[in-house]
Amino acid sequence: MEGFKLILFYFAAISLITVIVTAADKMNSKTGRRRVPEDFLLTLAILGGAGFEYLTMKIIRHKTRHKKFMAGLPVLFVLQIVLIAILYIYTQRG
Description:
By secondary structure, the chain is mainly alpha-helical. It is about 85% helix and about 0% strand. The protein has four helices and no strands. It has helices at about 1-30, 40-60, 65-70, 70-94. α1 crosses α2 and α2 packs across α4 (about 70-94). The longest helix is centred in the first third of the chain and has 30 residues, at about 1-30. The radius of gyration is 15 Å and the shape is elongated. The relative contact order is 0.16.
């Protein structure tokens, strides 16, 4: 079970980082400061932050017109949930 706790900690940490970076990009867009590249936001989503990135973007209304975010993030999130479930089952066997 310790291995699975580490997996959950990883997903929680990457999600928190993703929320912070997404919110910072929104603030930067309003103040004319340097923006976070979309590729970096997508990378954070791929690394495990898709669910919280999607929620953050919906809540702060950031990049909601970009199909690659509004369609892609939910798909990534579902895949990540499946991955977490598989990892949970795998860690229970060992």
